[in-house]
């Protein structure tokens, strides 16, 4: 759960979210180094006199500023592709949950069990108890085991929806007529909002 005035991400609860946080830090460091270098060069250009006009004809400089961005893009793209493939793979799920988005509620069905399905409605603001969170509390929560691979099948009955749990690193669109799937695995017990 995010806290008021929180600047960073929520605590990671799944291996995928941990990888996403590492990738974010990796990319942010590259962006920070590039921004610092550009700021340094701009400050040099503004404070020094341009006396070295012979450097304008240097082939080496042009080669460096062509190859260096390509190397930087590769340093960003390879970890990104690895995480994308990790997020897409499904390794023999222990449980499958079918999620259907409706106009104002979600329907859940545990497909591995015969008649286990329920609807989850958001609790109106007037009915909230002290300590409950507005627009996040529901009457029936989804209960899932931890440290097990779970497949979520996500679709919609009427309009586009988004099924997301930020601390698990999940966000999948529920589209009418299309069945999307994602996997999740929680590494610790808890109550996760999305």
UniProtKB/TrEMBL annotation:
Gene from which this protein is expressed: COII
**What is one Pfam family matched by this protein?**
COX2_TM
Where would you find this protein in the cell? Answer: Mitochondrion inner membrane
The Cytochrome oxidase subunit II transmembrane region profile domain covers 1-91
Identify the residues that the record assigns to the Cytochrome oxidase subunit II copper A binding domain, covering every copy: 92-194
- According to the record, the segments passing through the membrane are 27-46, 66-85
Family indicated by similarity = Belongs to the cytochrome c oxidase subunit 2 family.
Can you tell which superkingdom this protein's organism belongs to? Eukaryota
What is the protein's membrane topology class?
Multi-pass membrane protein
Q: Describe how the cofactor binds.
A: Binds a copper A center.
Q: Name one GO biological process term.
A: ATP synthesis coupled electron transport
Recorded GO cellular component terms are: mitochondrial inner membrane
PROSITE patterns, per this entry?
Answer: COX2_CUA, COX2_TM
UniProt KW keywords: Copper, Electron transport, Magnesium, Membrane, Metal-binding, Mitochondrion, Mitochondrion inner membrane, Respiratory chain, Translocase, Transmembrane, Transmembrane helix, Transport
Reactions the enzyme catalyzes: 4 Fe(II)-[cytochrome c] + O2 + 8 H(+)(in) = 4 Fe(III)-[cytochrome c] + 2 H2O + 4 H(+)(out)
Cofactor dependence is on:
Cu cation
InterPro entries hit by this protein: CcO_II, CcO_II-like_C, CcO_II_C, Cupredoxin, Cyt_c_oxidase_su2_TM_dom, Cyt_c_oxidase_su2_TM_sf
Summary of the function given for this chain in its UniProt record: Component of the cytochrome c oxidase, the last enzyme in the mitochondrial electron transport chain which drives oxidative phosphorylation. The respiratory chain contains 3 multisubunit complexes succinate dehydrogenase (complex II, CII), ubiquinol-cytochrome c oxidoreductase (cytochrome b-c1 complex, complex III, CIII) and cytochrome c oxidase (complex IV, CIV), that cooperate to transfer electrons derived from NADH and succinate to molecular oxygen, creating an electrochemical gradient over the inner membrane that drives transmembrane transport and the ATP synthase.
Name assigned to this protein: Cytochrome c oxidase subunit 2
């Amino acid at each position: 759960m995010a806290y008021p005035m929180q600047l960073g991400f929520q605590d990671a609860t799944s291996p995928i979210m941990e990888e996403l946080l590492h990738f974010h830090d990796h990319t942010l460091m590259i962006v920070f180094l590039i921004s610092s270098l550009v700021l340094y060069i701009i400050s040099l250009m503004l404070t020094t006199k341009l006396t070295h006009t012979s450097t304008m004809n240097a082939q080496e400089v042009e080669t460096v500023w062509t190859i260096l961005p390509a190397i930087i893009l590769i340093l960003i793209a390879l970890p990104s592709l690895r995480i994308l493939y990790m997020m897409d793979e499904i390794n023999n799920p222990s449980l499958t949950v079918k999620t259907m988005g409706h106009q104002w509620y979600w329907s859940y069905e545990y497909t591995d069990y015969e008649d286990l399905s329920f609807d989850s409605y958001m609790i109106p603001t007037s009915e909230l108890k002290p300590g409950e969170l507005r627009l996040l509390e529901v009457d029936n929560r989804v209960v899932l085991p931890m440290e097990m691979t779970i497949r979520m099948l996500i679709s919609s009955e009427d309009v586009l929806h988004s099924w997301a749990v930020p601390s698990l690193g999940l966000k999948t669109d529920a589209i009418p007529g299309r069945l999307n799937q994602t996997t999740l695995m929680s590494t610790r017990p808890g109550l996760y909002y999305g």
